[in-house]
Amino acid sequence: MKGPFPLLAVVALALALVLPGCGGPSSGGDEAGEAGSGPVVTVRAGTVSVQRFADTVIATGQWRSSGDVVIAAPFACTVESLQPHVGDTVAQGQRLGWLVTRESRSALRGAELLREQARTPTESTEAGRALALARRDLVRVPLVSPRAGIVTRRAAEVGAEVNEGTELITLTPREALVCETHVPAAMASRVRVGQQATLREDGASEIHRARVQRVLPSVSAVDQSRLVWLAPEGFSPPPALDRFVTATTEVGPPRNALAVPDSAVIEDDLTSATQVAVIGADGTANWTTVTLGAHAEGRRELVSPALPAGSRVIVVGQRGLPDHTRVKVTR
């Protein structure tokens, strides 16, 4: 009867030694991990601040013509002269060149051939009279511009024989020049006719004023964006067609909003999600997914979440930084 009791005592002693080790040390290790144990990374930081933003929609586009004026031959003729070239500006009523009717030109050419083929003095005399008559009856008609505009296409050259209705020159009136922008579908509903906008051509520093002329019902087949026409105001010299433009349209009054520095924003190449590394009170970097809005003076509007103003975000050294890493801010 005494045999089993020493064995039970040994088992009880073993359990007493093993069970306390199942909870205490691991819990302590978790707490140490949550406290951000590990190496300290040196970074630079900026702050979340309140910034004044204009309520705008930014889109890219190109100069287009909303309505060309085609100057065609009024009758079958020969182009005797044509002065304007592509890019030239012409005024309404300006003479662009001279046209010779096909019938009178044919009569003149026939008289010239008759004189060349004359073999006797009598034939030469008759041919000379016919040539003088053909020259006198040559019908030369001036080609006059019906509108003022910029020459965007020259379809005929001097000496060309053209039929009635053949295109000679195409003009783009100044009032027909528009900046055709591609507005993202999510923001197109905020764009209205008459809203003010600014235009900046690629490679240029000048800013030009414009106004929304029309919101087209069609969408771009390339990116499914809405097409919006902006009419320039006081643009001189006239812009070159097809040149790329960045347009900023004012869709509402300015507002004050939270903002983060541009350099704090990291965009995921795969998901396009944007994140910032917020420095917590415990000195660790916490990656936070954010939604951004407008852009102004090197800062981006923070739409969500509403981080407190004054919160520190990493601007240098955050790329590749693991979440909850301890950091040290330096200047």
Automatic annotation (TrEMBL):
- Cellular-component GO terms for this entry: efflux pump complex
- Domain of life the protein comes from: Bacteria
Record has Signal as a keyword: yes
GO terms assigned for molecular function: efflux transmembrane transporter activity
Q: Signal sequence span per UniProt?
A: 1-23
Q: Which UniProt keywords apply?
A: Signal
Q: What is this protein called?
A: HlyD family efflux transporter periplasmic adaptor subunit
The record lists the organism as Eiseniibacteriota bacterium
